[in-house]
């Protein structure tokens, strides 16, 4: 799997969140899930996308630690390189 | 004490178009929504009515239900929420097969990409009660809420159950309806292989050449309120739901009882519930699926339950122009029947040409006909029968 840049990961995750119903302008690094109306079902879908595209597993306990878009992007970017 | 149940809102998404006007205008004009052997809601775009999130979190049958209920609720004047305590507003929506489109796409994901690829939205989308739950969420309805599952009688059962809820004070209002979106590869193959659907690709209820039903999709919805409360708040009453009768054939998984006994008993029960004699009925909105068995047994049932009156009444089938909307059929047809009574019109059974000796009643083949009732309100029955031997009949009255 080709290494992805953090920008690419952020763009892909933004695209996913927008497809879940969030407004593109609201999807920023410091936006928390609640402000984007992202719930646990959305997060599972996000985890599926991330695993399929970057080979990174986001477990339930990992997701509990992620409060914002930036948290999730950083989590994936750190592990996508490995 | 039983309260009189008023209908204050109607909504419909059908192959004839989005909304109740398309339904009654086009049917009355003898126009068909069937194309290439299917009754698809081709011009329905969910994102015209729903947010991206609502659209994504609803199977197509739930999308139909949401939009049909939106229309009905707006007509009832509930745009800013129910006019009574939301905890006393019910929501019952029937379906034949629920989210089968979701089942099929998720099964494909499972087989092609493995268990981890199955969406976490699969269950909430495919469950047959999703339509009622999502409609309740969308409008904040917090009373009794569930789905009815009785194949092609599900929409009528939902309306009957909601009627009782309002009649007996279990709710101060109830949103009722039916929804179906089964034009999927598995459902089409399954109905075809059991011999239920038409090989000719033509829906012609009660015609001697009928050879099965045309599959359709869509949803219908009604807002039910006690008459007194509706009038007190100044709502326009569109019609009344005055009787409900439901029975089982206990005969065969798919075939109706040849004599039509189960259906006949349901018609009799609905008339008794409304306190009406056959002579007080002016129109029959038939189940009329275009299958050889249903149309013959329904004709026998009408003759048995209505006696001589069966031969004097106009009887027509909406399925001649929409195909069979399965679990939505009973709700869409009840909605259409209210519109027929409002306008005083019996729309035609489009395409009926050849008389069958087993179907020898007046199916209104020539075009829409005026209904008259000598000064009293017009009244009709709407029949719905489902695989499994479920029969549900509603009595409706003009306002």
Structure notes:
Chain A has 82 residues and is an all-alpha fold. Chain A has 4 helices and no strands. Chain A starts with 5 loop residues before the first helix and ends with a helix. The model of chain A has no long low-confidence stretch (mean pLDDT 93). Chain B is built from 13 helices and 13 strands. In chain B, strands 1, 2, 3, 4, 5, 6, 7, 8, 9, 12 and 13 form an 11-stranded mixed β-sheet that branches. Chain B has a two-stranded antiparallel ribbon with strand order 10-11. The mean pLDDT of chain B is 97. The interface between A and B is small, with 10 and 13 residues.
Oligomerization: heterodimer
Proportion of beta-strand residues of chain B: 15-25%
Corresponding CATH superfamily of the largest domain in chain B: Thiolase/Chalcone synthase
**Largest interface, counted by CB within 8 Å of the partner chain's CB:** A-B, 10 and 13 residues
By DSSP, the count of extended strands of chain B is 13
Short summary:
Chain A has 82 residues and is mostly helical.
Summary keywords:
A: 82 residues, mainly alpha, Non-ribosomal Peptide Synthetase Peptidyl Carrier Protein, Chain A, B: 399 residues, Peroxisomal Thiolase, Chain A, domain 1, 13 helices, 13 strands, 34% helix, 19% strand
